[in-house]
Amino acid sequence: MKPLLALIATVALPIVAGARTWTSTDGRKLEADLVSATATAVTVKNAAGQTFAIPLERLSEEDRKWVQSNSTAKPGAAPGPGTSASPTSNAPHKPIEGPYAALITGDWALSKHEDLPFALYASKELSAAQKYPLVLALHGKSQNDENGKQVGGWMKTFAKTENYAARPCIIVAPLCYQPFGGTGGGWYDKPGTEAIDLVKKLMKSLPIDEKRVYVIGYSMGGFGTCHLMNSEPRLFTAGVAVAGCTGVDTANTFKKRPLWLFHAKDDEVVKVEGSQALAKALERADKTFKYTEFPTGGHGIIGKVFDDPEVHKWLFSQAEK
Question: Which of 170, 187, 198 is nearest to 108 (CA)?
Answer without folding.
Answer: 170
